[in-house]
């Protein structure tokens, strides 16, 4: 039986930094630094367009009493975790995906995790950046919470 975690960062090595949110972001969504030095949701499938993303995720804003269910708004000062190999976090699986434990994942548009598909381009094979630690059939509805480990 899976344990429900009420925090984004579960275990492993990571650093916390503060940025301004470029848009509304939920704790657990994958973010990227933009040219304005703000963080925004990952805009495109990393394996298809931009290459590997920095392993950076918005965390709950516990210093202000907010939880993993509290979304920030554009202009808010937020904390993000910059994750290293082995880090386990509580992210979102893309709607339409059915992940088994051990499934390989990549960052996807909207800050979600998406089932990774092997590419014919050798360089893109390294863009699988996460592994699922829970089984989640998320074929309908909205993105669902899933634990993942950074590779």
Question: Would you mind describing this structure in some detail?
Answer:
This protein is mostly beta strands. It has one domain (9-150): Virus Head Decoration Protein, Chain: A (Beta Barrel), CATH 2.40.300.10. Helix content is 3%, strand content 39%. The protein is built from 1 helix and 13 strands, in the order ββββαβββββββββ. The strands form 3 sheets. Strands 1-7-13-11-9-10 form a 6-stranded antiparallel sheet, with no helix packed on it. A 5-stranded mixed sheet has the order 3-4-2-6-5, with no helix packed on it. The protein has a two-stranded antiparallel ribbon with strand order 8-12. The longest helix has 5 residues, at 46-50. The protein starts with 8 loop residues before the first strand and ends with a strand.
Question: How do the strands and helices of this protein lay out in sequence?
Answer:
Layout: E1 9-11, E2 14-21, E3 31-33, E4 38-41, H1 46-50, E5 56-58, E6 77-83, E7 88-93, E8 97-99, E9 104-108, E10 112-115, E11 130-132, E12 136-138, E13 144-150
Parallel strand pairs: 2-4
Antiparallel strand pairs: 1-7, 2-6, 3-4, 5-6, 7-13, 8-12, 9-10, 9-11, 11-13
């Amino acid at each position: 039986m899976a344990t429900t975690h009420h925090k984004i960062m579960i275990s492993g090595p990571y650093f916390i930094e503060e940025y301004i949110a470029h848009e509304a972001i939920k704790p657990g969504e994958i973010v990227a630094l933009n040219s304005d030095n703000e963080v925004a949701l990952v805009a495109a499938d990393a394996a298809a367009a931009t290459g590997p993303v920095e392993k950076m995720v918005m965390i709950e804003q516990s210093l202000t009493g907010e939880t993993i269910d509290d979304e920030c708004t554009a202009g808010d000062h937020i904390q993000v975790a910059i994750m290293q190999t082995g880090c386990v976090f509580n992210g979102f699986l893309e709607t339409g995906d059915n992940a088994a434990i051990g499934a390989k994942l990549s960052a996807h548009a909207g800050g979600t995790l998406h089932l990774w598909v092997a590419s014919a381009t050798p360089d893109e094979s390294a863009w699988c950046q996460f592994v699922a630690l829970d089984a989640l059939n998320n074929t309908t509805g909205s993105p669902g919470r899933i634990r993942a480990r950074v590779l």
